[in-house]
Fold each of these.
Amino acid sequence: MATWKDLFSAQPVLEVADLTLVDLDDEKMNRAVVRKQDMHLLPWMCITYLLNYLNRVSLGNARTLNDDNIQDNIMQHLDLTGQRYSVAIAVFFVPYVLMEFPGNVLMRHFSPSRWISRIVTSVGFVTICTASATTYRRLLVARFFLGMAEAGFSSGVMMHLCFWYKPEERAGRMAIFASSVALACAFGGLLASAISFLNGVAGLAGWQWLFILEGAPGMLVGMLVWFLLPDYPQTARWLTPYERAFAIKRLGAYAPTMHDDCWNWKTVKQTVRDPVFWLFAVQYFLMTNSLNAFGYFTPTIISSMGFAGYNGQLLTVPPNIFALLVIVSNCLHSDKTRERSRHIIAALVFVAAGYLVLALVPNWGVRYAAVFVIACTNAAVLPFIAHRTATVTGSMATAVATGGMVAISNCAGLSAPFLFPGRTAPMFSMGNWTIFAFLMLSVLMSLYAWHMLGSHSGYRTEGANTVARSRGEVEKVGDSLDMESAPATPSIGSEETRIVEVKTLEDLEKRDKVREKVREI
């Protein structure tokens, strides 16, 4: 009989076939295993990502909901005058930034299914509670707890992918579930349009119904995730013992595994001290300003073109559908060609052009077309994240790299809300020029990363027996390390990936010992 301890424990490890029996040249088996992973992982990632993002940006839709009937609008009810709306957005990111990195560590401790379930359920609950906010101060409290509830989700999902997919497979998968952001924005506009007609029903304003109806599905889905989201290949009931062994071995020696340490101070310090950590974190901050600007201010930008009420909400839908197609196409092509930098830079230039048009052109038709373009920021972000996950090895380094990067990048949530004050309407020149400059600076940083790290999609590894310290500076590890199983630390400038097979379970233990020797060097 199941106990409370069993309920809150991680999923049990199941039987795994002998890794020496696994034939990695079996393409049919590889396709079958990856297909099963996609079927059992991606639907949950898509729906949880959609619901979380929908709840996060619901305030943006609430701002313009029933704006053709001012007395029923949230701006009037909660007196969101001046910078108050921007502050309400920004306060979400204070606990979100502070708790993002600890969230990744806690996910390793509790397991992905338990941690992601906790996040999705609590986000839905807090969103529903936001409907009861009757004053500006209560709205700030709700937004603060919403940020605390959601912290750790984005980086946790990124890290969870690393336990299942090779680096060259990640951008496409990220695109599939992150495209639910575009769906969330599109669906949010449609849902807000429909909910606007509930204004006054049961004595509740339209914006209150918006928070209730967008939060409720999150609580239900969160409870299902607890039981149905798979944690690791070793715990997947829908894989046979041989398929579990294949899923583990196909990842190679550099991928994080469920057996890695949950905490290692030496790895934490080495990862944070690496200049590459700050290069990616700062660049992601620049790009996240564009993501936040689009997510929170698109309804406002469209409203400034003269479209109010449900018409304005409906006009937010087509740009997001267009963005979905662009994002998925760019990421799938990036995976297919196993190249990152060119895809990142091309997408950044494309989105920057949209902000340039918004800053310069007053014609509403041209401006609306530019909204389609700025909706595509994730076309650059997702190959960028996949690029980052291939520059670190092991669970601890991956947790620190992704968690730290996302935490720093979401400081953009404290800056982006103040880039589009109402007094700058309808051109919003300050915000558009600022984000255009951020994206162009991001292009320059991508060129630098391309020069230093290369643009291939695989793990950064050197040939046998070497550890790369910097471009052109390589140090010998030593003949005592096994030449077939010794993983190297990220290599600067390498354009080739050395795939190391893990032949037995003992090799996993030997790999961890080798990693410690490499770290000491």
Amino acid sequence: MKRPREAAADVPDADGLTVLHRVRASSKLVPWHVAAVTCIAACPDGSVFAAGYDDGKVEVFDGALFNCLARIPGSDGSEISSIAWARAPRDAHWRLFASTLDGSLLELSCQQLQPIAATDSFGGAIWCMRPAPAAAGVVTQLAAACGDGSVKLFAVHGAVAGAEYVKSLPRVEGNVLALAWHPDGRSIVSGGSDGCIHCWDVQRGTERQRITVGTSSAVPPCVWSLTVLRDGTIVSGDGDGAVQFWDGRFGTLLARHQQFAADVLALAASPDGASVWASGVDPRVALFHLVPDKATGAPHWVFLDRKQPHTHDVRSLTPLLRPDSDPLLLSGGNDGQLVLYSLERFLKEHPTRQSKSPQRPLLQLAAGLAPARLLHVQGRTLSLWQLGRAVRSQALAGGDAAGAAKHFEGDHWDLAALPSQLASITTRSSSHIAAAALSPDGSAVAAADRGRLRLFRLVAAAAAADVTAYSAETGMPTQWTLKNHSALAELLQQLPGSIQGLSFRPTPAEPLSLLVHSAGGLCHIDMAAGLSLHKPDTKQPRTKRNAALSKPEACSELGRNGRLLKLQHSCLLLGHTSASEALLLEKPWAEQLQTLLPPLYRHRYGT
């Protein structure tokens, strides 16, 4: 990777090259624990969506660019079961609520990154929570399915944090695991471990009808998921792997599809009610569509197709209705991935992952000393590492006729010392760490959770696809940015995924050398030189290659400003460790899948 020459570099560097420490991080050096996605909820205005995880954290994403806007850390022993958006008439913005399996209903602040109010369910674990249908941009009711067999109703008031308990619907046998509102907002359907669907009148608090889901099994299947379509049709997913369509008025079975080998945990419907998606322990996402019968013309439900972007259980499906863009379908599950599908072109387009490296741990470099130090934070644990020191390989130690050592791009460098762990700190609080920072000299660490800010000192015993440079004096974009904006925008659009980090070269004399990285690639930009447009090679190789970097460019492209390199594995961190060295941390996604519980076993023919 070419950079401007410097007379005195940390590593002998007569040809202006940067030594890249490329670490395919082991679980010991950089532990990366990916939590399961338990629920997804899209804001009714389509601007953002939120995802809840089984480690108690909640992430909020932009609905257009899909980058993470806020991460609200969780705590030990708290698992998010559902999230919902609500808004009272006097509220200026939509408010985010979450329910947990310990029986709490929380209001979360995306500005303070913590819960600002908590309400007890008075019914044990909350397995499911759903907001009432939005009317004129207002949602003031939340319904919670509780472990004591009841459905609790809560009210949301303007300018008052939290939700207020209103009433409880009569209890039924077993746990209530799923619920859904009727589009008119006057009735609720619930299902649970008793194998029945209960239809409730919200105003009167009475049960209007009861539907038995099981057909022939001695033990009734659990009803894991429910949704109600615009015409009142009730759709259920159960423990037998069946998706069933019921007449909402009479409770009769309209259609039954057995497309899954295990429990159906999630359902989603299109706004017009003509399409339904389902998934669960069998991680295939199936599409059912309402079509007219060829003989009679009467509409009936048919199975169309399925896709399987997930490797493990899918636990949530939800539509994202964006005002100025095509609607999307979102899915998430035990593999920790958020996947996006086109709602209207589900059969024609492939799904895409929101990120190649979801739920990245907090990583920060201290380049003020040699060798550099790396801070790793995840959960309640902070780990401080000292990186290795690079030396020129003995096989390349020769020089030219004048005796000067020659350096070429791609030359291998050895490690004179391996990375070593300096400290590992686990906080006593049950709250997970929300933010942390490492001092420039690597001797002090600051960490903050919901309750307090901590400072630790080491004592020796022996982050859209855009980059803009602003002037510190005027606060306006620099002349380089204005001149190269078009070329820079086109360059960064070629970078796989959204930008996750920037790193300037740590030299006061020449601070204009910048490294930009996403989860799937990196780019070097020299702001002291012009940026020219470069069209990438769109030809696909005939065979798959296992090389971690993309195919090497032609020699004429070596050192070109704005050169882009694509990565095979997920990039967790890229940053300068000195004026002439940089660190690249990669993690194979297959390594993360091995840490999860095994998915549903499906026998393959011939094995």
Amino acid sequence: MNNVLQTLTSISSPPPPTPSSSTSFDSRKMAAERKRPISLMEQPVKTRRVENTSTFDYHFTQDLNNQDIEVTIHTLKMQRLGEYKQPVFISPMAKASLTASDYALFPLMDKVKDFLTGSSQVMLVLGDSGAGKSTFNRYLEHELWQGYNAGGRIPLFINLPALEKPKKELIAEQLRIYRFSETQIQDLEQRRQFVLICDGYDESQLISNLHTKNLLNRSGKRDTKMLITCRSQYLGPDYRIRFVPEAEGKYHQVADDLYMEAVIAPFSEEQIEVYVERYVPLEPRTWVKKDYMDKLKAIRNLMDLVKNPFLLTLCLEALPKVVEGRSDLSRLHITRVQLYDTFVQHWLSVHKRRLQDRELDNVNHIAFEGLLEVGFELSGIRFQQDLAAAIFREQEGRPVVNYAHKLDKNIWKAAFFSPDIEITLLRGASLLSRIGTQYRFPLGNSDEFGPQPRSDSSDIGDHPLSQRDLIAEPSIIHFLVERVQMDSNFRQQLLAFIEQSKTDDCAARAAANALTILVKAGLHFNGSDLRRIRVPGADLSDGQFDSAQLQEADLTGVNFTRSWIRQADLSKARMEGVQFGELPFLELGHRVTSIVYSTNGKFLAVGLGNGDINIYDTATWSRTKILRGHKDNITSIAYSSSSEQLLSGSHDCTLRLWNCQTGSTDFILEGHTESVKGVAFSPSSDQIASGSNDET
């Protein structure tokens, strides 16, 4: 299998170079927004951050113990303010919790200001990968430093994956990075309060309560504020115990009144449009705002995809290349994988042209010519693939790599971070960011662009898919599913892992991950010869295994929920802990006549024989609304593409258009003389259609 598969674990969204002034957005003041100067109460979208070979070293002389501590703090303040650069700011909206309504949104910064001025001690900010958690944190630190006054709370941005002992020495370890002396650290911890902006809880693989472990609930430290960001996917159902502070002097008794929470919401279409408007002028382009917006709206499902800030910035860079030479965009379907692949190619091509235009010395010129001979872009892709796989394998996915040449020149890190000329050129053209001796792929989590099998690995145990179970990593699974759907070679590699597991115990984990990915990609295994496969712990829910031969297979802990396994032969198979699941069911007092999921899958609408429509939250299966107005049974219902409107038809010969947020009727449509039998929205939701027994 000669196909080279992407294995990059993480990249950052890449807006263009920083302009001389920044801009901002407030959805409530759209008209005035375009005229006013930038507000600092806005969230930055992730920026392009590449390796900076002239890295900053936070160094304070050792004699500072005898100087005023405020002089030292002021020096740090000016350094942090000078480092912060962000070209475009978009104000993030948020909701109160994971189960809160998507329509009950508020400005995240307003909630953070309430947290900082109130009595709460911990605030957890959740969000999907690429939602803007890290850049919001950096922006918050920047704003707090701007407003800092002597003696006030000291803002500390803490990159949790980069620390060795965040469980017990969180403040001290961060201050050491800034080169404060031990005497200064002791003095600050005893006398001063902090705003701890803790970024990447999920990336650091933490499961402990940082506030409790660092004794921040003790007398003298209760005024310290801790804001923590984490991917929503990383948390289980009982996640609050990791973050809620303990009550002072009460062993293991939590203090809910000291805890706040918010979940970053996806961009609205209005926010997307404002971002595009401000993105276009930042560098010379052939496209204008209208070109981008027309393409975003014309390509099926693309607007939904780019509601993620990271994917939006990625899309704007890649879109001109993706649509090049295509006329009928309505038939085009774009995935995250396509955007990513196109962007990486574009990124490397730009860096190749920059190197070609530079006056390189003889040594660098020879190395560059050698890379051109084998293909600069291909070499760059392989370099990043290999590094991503090594991080996943050697560091269990922890994204930050520390490299000091004298200490690490004889281990795996040297293949990517040594001063070798060719390695330096490839590293400089990669998506890596660097702070001091720390390197990382700059998207907020190191696994987002997933470990993918490589055809050049001789030992199955060395494959990224053999390193850990991916069942609890939905973002990785989703990305690899898209790769399977695009790449037949990748699909064949995964099938080969499953086949290898029949005779090789070492292939079991890779096979379980592979079969999970293939099932999620929609492959059917009806009648397949799966005898003696080893796939313990695989998630095969919604799979199709009718008449499959699974004799003597190791199916320990496999999830078969909603799977088709009719006439499957499971004789002598290991079945300990197998889950067959049970679908949730709803008991209603009236006959169900129609049913439909919302476009985003978060709600279920159930039409009843008495004319009511019940709306259920699919996360909790609790009823959130009852839509009343029809006088007879509901015959058909449909959600708009945004899930913000619901269209219903009834035996009473009318149609109703409902506002999903308020539950009120926006329009009543009459005209049919007999029962309405079907209703539908157009793909853009600009039009509706209905069919009736009156033949209209």
Amino acid sequence: MSSPCERFFAILELVNLLTPYLHHKDVSHLSRTSKRTHHSCIPSLYRSLQAFGSCCRPTIFSSIPSLHALTRNVHHVRILGLETDELAFYYLCALRFEEIHSGKTATPSARLTWSPPLDTRTHRVIALPPMNSLSELTLRLGVSKNWTCNYRLPSAQNPRATLAQLCWLISINPRLTVLDLQCVLVNDLQAGRYLARFIAELSMIRRLELGIIYSGDDRFELESLLLFCCQSSIQQLSVTLSPDENSDAAQSQSNLWQEEGEGVMTVVPRREEPMAKLEVLKAHFLRNWHSAADIYSILSHCPNIKKLEVTMAVGQDADVIGRMIAQECPKIVSLAYGDVSLTVHNPLPFKILDFLPAQQVTEFIYGGRFSNIVVPEVNMSLQRHSTTLRRIVVQGDRSLRAMSASFFLSECANLEILHIISSHSTGHYVTLANVVEATPWRCTKLRELVLSISGCEVPVANRLLPYYCRPSPVVLTAAETQHFARLETLYIQIGKLTSLQTLGLKMITLDRHGRVDVEALGEPMSFPAMLSTGDTFEGRPGYLCHLDGLSRLEILEGSVRVDTVETKLTVDWAEAKWMNKHWPLLRRAEFFSRAEHMTHPFKWLRDLRTGNRERLDLGR
């Protein structure tokens, strides 16, 4: 009688349910344990083939034995990922297979009417059968720059050849449900029609992501081709058009070959019925459209969109376009607008919020200048969705600018994620006074909070040492006492966020002219007295105790260093033991810049957690 293990692996359906939860290497090891498990696990081992190569990471095409194994199991591949060199090499291998089996088997032809010349074989080529059972295909293209590739081919430098090769791969896989094409160089509208023709034949497509590099003047026609060639069954669509910075070089490479039959496929089927199943639309190409009619021609075909991500530069027509978008796509619950290139505040996203049904939007993401959030009209737009908003992300702007977050903190009671993001010299920040005046915070359901806050550094009077360097008992000045009271209010509000899992707090320092001190942002900083338990005998303030409600905290990042001048004197064993007791789920904290700077109390904390739970990372 067979064992339960043997009976389990005899049922391929159960094995297929198990293997997605295992690492690829574990599946490989499992397939070597017996003939039965080998037979059961091989389909799962080759189900997903990701061949994204680099100089230090060879792919399956780098090894002759691996290619021979792939030849025997190519029919199991359902998910495929390739880059430019890998696509060119696989295309050559498929041509080799067709040459060998020409007239013997009914294999799909790898040679198209409009196709590149054959590459010179400078190394051994293995005949690979066409992968014609794919359900998901990802291609990261562009002109090849991987000079260390040992199977590098001349066609990898020709964008037109690469386009022909990817279209061939699409043509032999008509049952694709997911197609992700990134950095596809399209030199002219004829090439765009060529690509659109093959996309139009994918009748089962569910998710389509296109990253097109195009510098032509007829962008609107290309965009229309790509949108109206999609089947009505599509559910997620993302199209991004960006200019080609090396258009001259790419054009010279593209002209290396031409064929008489190149212009045969110029007629692209145009879908007339609306995309009723489309729920996610990411249309970044709209940034160059100024006509409401152009925008209407697209969005009128998308009545059931729930997630809209766009970038448009509109001015006086904001009311008209905002109303039109809300009327044509009345089911939007997630709105993402803008990017870091926007230099002025744009009212369009707030107009869209105005015209959508009240209390409907759950996610709002804004990129670009956002300083006008303090304008009452803008707050009113967000207030119409204050009870349904779950996620707010503010990012972008080419310089660091102050904004108000009091509305988010005091009005959005069901908010779960709030990110006001800043980098070294770009983004947005709030002031300490602004977050304190919003108390009590109503967003007590927050799971992720990322804030950049200015005005947190303790004022130091002339000829007076910082409070942590003074002899005990420490006597605070009136200004210091008032400042620590504001900081304590901030820490108390954060400590009440009992569902918080990720906390990112970054200090923004200003110079005497009120401008952001960019140089100081690169120095290690820590919020005053936040990570210290304090000492009443010495008169030293400490507010770590207010954060004892963060029992679910997993990630602590930002200005939380314990290797600054202040924290070296105020954070020690008592704080490490407190964190071990009150933050049991902590797995990453940016306490130290380098491991060798770690102090003994935190080495103890790291080693203690390593023995019991997931490794604790205390570095940046």
